Amino acid sequence: MDDRKNALAAAGRDTQLCHLGNDPFAYHGFVNPPVVHASTVLFPDVQTMETRNQKYTYGTHGTPTTDALCSAIDALEGSAGTILVPSGLAAITVPFLAYLSAGDHALIVDSVYGPCRRFCNGMLKRLGVEVEYYDPEIGAGIEALIRPNTRLVHTEAPGSNTFEMQDIRAIAEAAHRHDCVVTMDNTWATPIFFKALDFGVDVSIHAATKYPSGHSDILMGTVSANAAHWKKLEDAYTVLGMSASPDDSYMILRGLRTMGLRLEAHQKAALQVAEWLEPRDDVARVLHPALPSFPGHEIWKRDFKGASGIFSFVLAADDPAKFKPKARAFLNALNIFGLGYSWGGYESLAVPVDLSDRTIRKAPEEGAVIRLQIGLENVEDLTADLARGFAAAAEV
User: Fold this and answer.
1) Phi/psi class of residue 152: alpha, beta or left (left: φ > 0; alpha: ψ in -120 to 50)?
2) Domains of the chain by range and CATH?
3) pLDDT tens across 8-35, in order?
4) Its Enzyme Commission number (predicted)?
5) The whole model's pTM is what?
6) Does residue 280 sit in helix, strand or coil?
């Protein structure tokens, strides 16, 4: 077993993805771990029950199936421990509840995932936590915003919908000088393209609903912490009674096996579509960190190993009254792109972006923002579909 572990540690990305999280010979040689459905777990005697001196004690505290996925995620993240929760939003809210108390101050990036903002402005404030939003491009300047009661700095790179890049290492170093915990929503890049804990992040958050699943049919979140912050996260997870189903855990583990290959395909196609969009007169801007024209490109190039399949563009309009009508016409004309939320699956999606909740990074003035998830279809079919959208928008 140690020889196999050492071999995997030195292996390439896709080799690791194919083998992490399971020891076939622990389960009679079967390649995939068993799906263990459990609520009640029996104890051999009262003493063991009282001391809980056995590996499994109740279904919410883990099964061989969920442990297999946690083990794989820990290996990818370099983390001390991982919890599995029922959604990506839960993956954000559980660590916030773990590390924040009444009277604390939290710094949240202004380009944050929308439901996270709703949680912060609603439940966190109701619980007595003061929330302040900061510019995603603040970098080391975030130190000026840290107060004596600041306990947590939440990052997301690239930012939701507008894809601003953050200097994660600089932010983490500043936060740690004041004993703040640094959390990051790293769903866009996954640990394949950005290993958050290596850049000073304490707690790495993912919506496994997206690329780890890859098929738009599972809801799950993962939260991975370094050694200094693992125990507090684990305690909160236990107290809240959060757990993910063994069936979904099995399917996410299955999805990990091909995630590297799928990400490469998403990356290649998305960049081709972005480059096709950029010179168009009806496109004011393309918001994709891998494009040299994007303001945060140099940070992306320095810190990230790749780009995923989701980005946005600004649909040009000379009259603000036409922003929404043009966007609606564009979207309604699409045949291959589906109109649907989420991303990371095999199918391409398009959605209008609402930035009305922003406090610092406001909506662009050139037109409506449309977000694209580039799936695994042929690029020429996707660009032809987008051309139909632009033709429809031009009629407005």
Assistant:
1) beta
2) 2-255 (3.40.640.10), 260-394 (3.90.1150.10)
3) 777 888 888 888 888 888 888 888 888 9
4) 4.4.1.8
5) 0.95
6) coil
